[in-house]
Prior knowledge:
Elements: E1 22-23, E2 33-35, E3 40-43, H1 51-60, E4 64-67, H2 71-77, E5 90-93, H3 110-124, H4 126-136, E6 144-147, H5 154-165, H6 170-178, H7 180-194, H8 199-203, H9 214-228, H10 231-237, H11 242-252, E7 253-255
Parallel strand pairs: 3-6, 4-5, 4-6
Antiparallel strand pairs: 1-3, 2-7
Helix pairs in contact: 3-9, 5-6, 6-9
Amino acid sequence: MSTKMTGELDPRIRLEGPLNFRDLGGYGTRAGMRIRSGLVYRADNLAKLSPSDIDRLGALGLHTVIDLRSDEEVDRLGRFPVGAYPSPLTYTHLSLVEDVVGVRDPNMDDQTYMNARYQHLLEGGTDAIIASFRIFARPTSYPLVFHCVAGKDRTGLIAALLLDLLGVPDETIAQDYQLTDRATAEWFDRVRSTQPEEIETIQQIPAVLFTANPETILSLLARIRSTTGTIEKWLLTHGVLTEEIDSIRELLLTKRDDGITIDT
């Protein structure tokens, strides 16, 4: 178990706009390694950044932003303010799927629906997933962040695949996924205080879409393994090269006792 997940420690980097920006560094692996801190981040919507947010992200030295949102979401919500960023930065839009919600059979229970929805994200988003991992394999990409709207589903899927590839135990992957629930609770508080007129609209959306149940991400990993063998084999089958996987591991893994600390 990674020390990052003990007690009530909240690994989010506090920003004024985004509520779910966090470092994937610090997690331990089954082989006794650790993911390097300060290289790969996951986040929610990065279109609405305050000047202080931009300063904070600039201090992180970000080189790459991978935007997993749909074309419609980018047009409606805007995109990362590259022009306001203090140093050169590569913005890449890789829409995972355009149909974000997916189709729900009225006879499906909540978990069956979420499992089907994540399978839809995996299958419909294969090209974007592979493109993301190719970016992960390039040393010049780092530090980088990948994000969607809430930082839960599309971002959570990519994070889970990456963490598994790096050897992080399933229990830790599930806990990392579930951390989005903290950001969601704060988002509801923000809406209630700043946009109370939106509450009725939000209440029309199935409540399950606002939860990060660990079973959802664990079920997805189990389905991939049952059909392909391993997450690594799934990536290889869909076009990621062996040398790219080797590069990702070399770039992101280090010995557990290297003295790295997590700055949140």
